[in-house]
TrEMBL record:
Species this protein is from: Geobacter benzoatilyticus
Protein name from the UniProt record: YXWGXW repeat-containing protein
Pfam families: WXXGXW
InterPro entries assigned to the protein according to its UniProt record, in alphabetical order: YXWGXW_rpt
Top-level taxon in the UniProt lineage: Bacteria
Signal peptide bounds: 1-20
Stretches with biased composition (Basic residues): 143-161, 171-182
Keyword line: Signal
Amino acid sequence: MKKFLAVVPLILAAVSPALADSNVGFDVNISVGNRPSVVVPAPPAVVVPAGPRIIIDEPPLFITPPRLGFYVGVDIPYDMFYISGRYYLWQDNHWYRAPHYSGPWGVVKYKNLPPGLRKHKLERIRYYRDDEYRSYHRDRDHYRGKRFKPGKEYKKHYKQERKHDKSEYKHHGKGKGHGHDD
């Protein structure tokens, strides 16, 4: 090995004037040790889409088209579904799942969707949703289908707050100490 390394500079010295006049490149790589001579490229990075940011001013209404058997969101600009205590969303060619209708949303693989959701094509789900929504919209007060609106616990809390506010209002007197005119 030492003899080989000593010969390399002599070869380079003899060849370099000829190479300097030509348009030819010359490169010498010497590897010493147990490193593999083949460079293994790193695997490509896996791009996972970030969860979407869903903006809904109030809890959405969900109805259940009889042909589907699960809740579909209506009056919102999203394809959102409620099944077994979870929310599912189809957006930007990805499925997402969340514990709440406003997120946080995480990507879910198609094979991990609930069977009811996998059973139907998205176009068919939209068709059944729209058809059932027309029925709901025509006779909202007498609608006989299943419906669900998340956040009933907030209504209970709101009622308790109103009750508390009314008792304070009575306790302090009408308008006294609250900036109201007598």
